[in-house]
Amino acid sequence: MGDNRIGAIADDLATKGWTWQPLLLPDALTAALRAELIARDAASDLGPAGIGREDAFQVDRSVRRTRITWFDGSTPAQQDFRIWAETLRNALNRELLLGLFEMEVCFAVYPPGGFYDRHLDSFAGARNRVVSLVAYLNEDWDEARGGALAVWAAGAGEKDAPAARIIPQPGGVVLMLSEAIPHEVEVTQETRYGLAGWWRVNQSGLGRIDPLS
Ligand SMILES: O=C(O)CCC(=O)C(=O)O
Ligand SMILES: [Fe+2]
């Protein structure tokens, strides 16, 4: 990842709270992650995704229709992704002083008809998710296949037009401030492969240590 790319990402996050970066993930990594996701999906390794905080997990198929599986670090593709994401984390901490700490990541498959209604990735003030990262793993994609990611400006209402509709092209990466940027996955016509990750900050404090899991 070059300095120009990192500078653009930091600028976008600082000024508007989100960024779309086409072809940010290296091609070989995109292909390896795609192969793993397709194999896991075929083996029915993926379960329906829940909504809300981890301690209040619920499956509501009227809000979200997708299958996910959490990264467990067991494969070279996952390990390579984590190394790549560390570079980004260090750069964002350096440029924006965000104090990003640990990342949780899951693969996500949106089957035909899949979607995720407008939402924030974190409850304001919870600090459990600070920056969200989405990366797209399909081989190619165009508008007619659906599944665009609509992104709104911070503070925009449901009736406001989105700031952008992102076509989930392979290797493209979206970064968003998790507490501020509303977004929605529009109904997809074809199977849509991707991953979603969230960095949280270290919540260690007096009498409490927030360990790496
Ligand atoms: O796949 C996407 O474009 C976004 C997914 C998303 O919003 C989420 O998993 O929270
Ligand atoms: Fe989201």
Automatic annotation (TrEMBL):
Its cofactor is L-ascorbate. This is 2OG-Fe(II) oxygenase. InterPro entries: HIF_prolyl_hydroxylases (IPR051559), Oxoglu/Fe-dep_dioxygenase_dom (IPR005123), Pro_4_hyd_alph (IPR006620), Pro_4_hyd_alph_FE2OG_OXY (IPR044862). Residues 99-201 form the Fe2OG dioxygenase domain. Transmembrane segments: none annotated. It comes from the Bacteria. Keywords: Dioxygenase, Iron, Metal-binding, Oxidoreductase, Vitamin C. The lineage of its organism: Bacteria, Pseudomonadati, Pseudomonadota, Alphaproteobacteria, Hyphomonadales. It holds the Pfam family 2OG-FeII_Oxy_3.
